[in-house]
Amino acid sequence: MGLGCNSGTSEEITRAVDAVLAEARLSNVLNS
What we know:
By secondary structure, the chain is mostly helical. Helix content is 75%, strand content 0%. The protein has one helix spanning 8-31. The mean pLDDT is 83.
């Protein structure tokens, strides 16, 4: 999320976290 950090690793981490959160939301929706 554009915080002005140009390090590729933190961008990868952010994407990984986003993916995990999206999966959690998806399974939450499917389970309810």
